[in-house]
Amino acid sequence: MYLPRLRRINDALKEIKEYDKDSCLTYYMLEQLMEEGELTMMKYGNAYVVNLDEVYQFFSKPQRKRGRPKKEENNET
User: Fold this and answer.
1) Does 29 reside within a domain?
2) What values do phi and psi take at 51, rounded to 5?
3) Which of 4, 31, 40, 46 lies 20 to 30 angstroms, CA to CA, from 56?
4) Measuring CA to CA, which residue among 63, 2, 71 is closest to residue 33?
5) On the CB side of 16, how many CA atoms lie within 13 Å of its CA?
6) Does residue 73 form part of some domain?
7) Is 11 exposed, middle or buried (0-12, 13-18, 19+ CB in 10 A)?
8) Cα–Cα distances in Å, from 67 out to 7, 43, 64, 70?
9) Domain presence at residue 71
10) What Rg, from alpha-carbon coordinates, does the chain have?
11) Containing structural domain, residue 44
12) 16 part of a folded domain
């Protein structure tokens, strides 16, 4: 039986920082990923929790490029 490792966002960050002290992951970044639907958002009481296994899986897969595509310059004269 699979039992997800649910953590409050701060606790998830703390566990990740123990594994990788130089991690640049922030509370805001996790919160944004949850709001964008990239990570599953679950509310437990007054706190939001995240599946730690899902966080590790998200960052281990190749990421698609985000943002506005760059304009192509036409250098023909």
Assistant:
1) yes
2) -80, 115
3) 46
4) 63
5) 24
6) no
7) middle
8) 29, 28, 10, 9
9) no
10) 17
11) 6-60
12) yes
Cα-to-chain-centroid distance, residue 57: 10
Output the six-digit token pair for 3.
Answer: 């039992």
Per-residue pLDDT tens listing for the chain (77 residues): 888 899 999 999 999 999 899 989 999 999 999 999 999 988 889 988 999 999 999 988 876 666 777 777 666 65
**Which three-class secondary structure state does DSSP give residue 26?**
coil
Strand partners, 66: none
Looking up tokens 């679950």 gives: 42
Q: Which residue has the tokens 């566990």?
A: 15
| In the block, residue with structure tokens 């990788």 | 20
Tell me how many domains the chain contains: 1
Take residue 51 and report the two structure tokens written for it: 């599946």
Dihedral over Cα of 16, 36, 54, 64: its sign: negative
